[in-house]
Automatic annotation (TrEMBL):
Protein name: adenosine deaminase
Domain of life: Bacteria
Family the entry assigns: Belongs to the metallo-dependent hydrolases superfamily. Adenosine and AMP deaminases family.
Residue runs in coiled coils: none
Listed EC numbers: 3.5.4.4
UniProt-listed InterPro entries: A_deaminase_dom, Ado/ade_deaminase, Metal_Hydrolase
Residue ranges constituting the Adenosine deaminase domain according to the UniProt record: 21-367
The protein's enzyme class: hydrolase
Length: 375
């Protein structure tokens, strides 16, 4: 895969994908490291890498992740997590992560990560969250110094196979006024339903704290149901397999006629946001039922039916991608234009874990940016 060049234009315009104002909702901190930084951080702590050549290491991540299996995809994180166990490592990774969002035209981003995976060298949970926040704030200062602006919130994540959900939920709420905007569960989806973390979700509901849940990626409709009814999720992390609840009745040259099951109808009618990540969904086999190319992704079906679709990178390192690249791939596959790309960003702005006034301001900034791009 090749990242979108900074000068690649949206078809029919003189506007680059990278220059468009964007919102990133599903973007993992431990999936967005720079290969060169991994090498330097690993050298400082004596951590062994598959390669100490920057390009070879980048290729290793992409090739290892491109397996069609979520467990194999997740195994690449052993390397990135290995260099994110100190305050210095977390501050640097978080700062560069946000710097790279700014370079990609992101004006609001949510950084999701699991503090419980960063404790092997003595950090406490709170110290880990504080370290990431320090890096985020340094990057916001970097952007301001360069005449740019970005808002960033942390999504504190609990690993669904572990038994720390309530503890991590309490951590998230403890930092709600110090950078943390929401809660997530991630990791191996199949066999670890949201109901296993019910105590955490009950606590979060009583705290009026927003939740997104990984669901509908490595497991199907039952996982999505669990995210909605046990997790009280306001958004679905991926959620692509909601398309399993859509039957295509018939097609002609101009139209596709479908029937929605009750779950798909609920997700659509309640405008529950889908955090779709096209390249990642290909790599992990999440869309294997529909095909193995971007054009086979049910993204366009969901969009045309009125679902709240958003475009996300998931793990920029593993997929060698960015939001700009994902938008370019979708534009090429489905002939989208500037107005379509704006809808995806407005959907994301409406779903951001922000107060309503801030979401309205974010939507205005997006609309202003797209209006200028189309002029």
């Amino acid at each position: 895969m090749t990242a979108v060049p900074d000068d690649e234009f949206v078809p029919g315009t003189r506007t680059t994908f990278a220059s468009l104002p964007k919102v990133s909702l599903h973007d993992h901190l431990d999936g967005g490291l720079r290969p060169g930084s991994i090498i330097e951080l690993a050298d400082a702590i004596g951590f062994a890498l598959p390669s100490t050549d920057e390009q070879e290491l980048a290729d290793w991540f992409e090739d290892s992740a491109d397996s069609g299996s979520l467990p194999s995809y997740l195994a690449t994180f052993d390397v990135t997590l290995g260099v994110m166990q100190t305050r210095e490592g977390l501050v640097r990774v978080a700062r560069e992560f946000v710097d790279d969002l700014v370079a990609d035209g992101v004006i609001y981003g949510e950084v999701r990560w699991a503090p419980e995976q960063h404790l092997t060298r003595g950090l406490s949970l709170d110290e880990a969250v504080e370290s990431v926040q320090e890096g985020i704030e340094l990057a916001i200062d970097d952007a301001r110094a360069a005449g740019r602006s970005i808002q960033v919130g942390q999504l504190v994540t609990a690993m669904r196979h572990a038994d720390r959900g309530l503890e991590i939920a309490e951590l998230a709420v403890r930092h709600r006024d110090r950078g943390v905007v929401g809660f997530d569960i991630a990791g191996a989806e199949l066999g670890f339903p949201p109901r296993n973390q019910l105590a955490a979700f009950d606590y979060l509901a009583h705290q009026f704290f927003p939740v997104t849940v990984h669901a509908g990626e490595a497991d199907g409709l039952e996982s999505i149901k669990g995210a909605l009814f046990d997790g009280r999720a306001l958004r679905l992390g991926h959620g692509v397999r909601i398309a399993e609840d859509i039957d295509i009745d018939r097609q002609d040259d101009e139209n596709t006629y479908v029937s929605l099951g009750r779950l798909a109808e609920w997700v659509k009618d309640r405008e529950i946001t889908l955090e779709l990540s096209p390249s990642s969904n290909l790599q992990t086999g999440a869309i294997a039922a529909w095909g193995d190319e971007i054009v086979d992704h049910p993204f366009d079906l969901l969009y045309q039916l009125g679902f709240q679709v958003t475009v996300n990178p998931d793990n920029r390192l593993m997929s060698n991608t960015s939001i700009s690249r994902e938008l370019a791939l979708l534009t090429d596959a489905f002939s989208y234009d500037l107005s379509d790309l704006e809808v995806f960003q407005l959907n994301a702005a409406a779903a951001a874990f922000l107060p309503v006034e801030d979401r309205e301001d974010l939507a205005d900034a997006i609309s202003d940016g797209f209006e200028a791009a189309g002029a």
